[in-house]
């Protein structure tokens, strides 16, 4: 698993995480079921797990560790359509810089109320 990663919640919100500290700040043990998808820097799918008595949240690769750039791109397009007035960034290769550019575009885009 490599950072940055992108988390997608059940409202279609995409949350970039640069490191483990940011992951812990953006997530809560009681609400990890609200995260419907997660991707690492190579667009490989991830799962969230609670670890130890402190209930730290850990990201682990799913059983299928091949990149899923098309699935990630669909989540990103949906986020920009629902939550911003901007166009989604165009996917590029290699994936790692693409995930970084997606994270930067999400952080730079002003959000608004959800569009139906």
For this entry, give a set of tags.
116 residues, two-stranded antiparallel ribbon, alpha+beta
Which structural class matches the secondary elements?
Answer: alpha+beta
Sheet-strand content, in percent, reads 15-25%
C-alpha geometry: globular
The tally of strands reads 5
Cα-based radius of gyration, to the nearest Å:
14 Å
Helix/strand order, N-terminal first? EEHEEEHH
What is the count of helical runs?
A: 3
Terminal-residue CA separation: 34 Å
Helix content: 25-40%
The average pLDDT value, as a whole number, equals: 86
State the gist of this model.
This protein has helices spanning 20-26, 69-83, 95-108; strands at 5-9, 14-17, 35-39, 46-51, 56-61. The chain has 116 residues and is an alpha+beta fold.
Secondary structure: elements and pairs:
Layout: E1 5-9, E2 14-17, H1 20-26, E3 35-39, E4 46-51, E5 56-61, H2 69-83, H3 95-108
Antiparallel strand pairs: 1-2, 1-3, 4-5
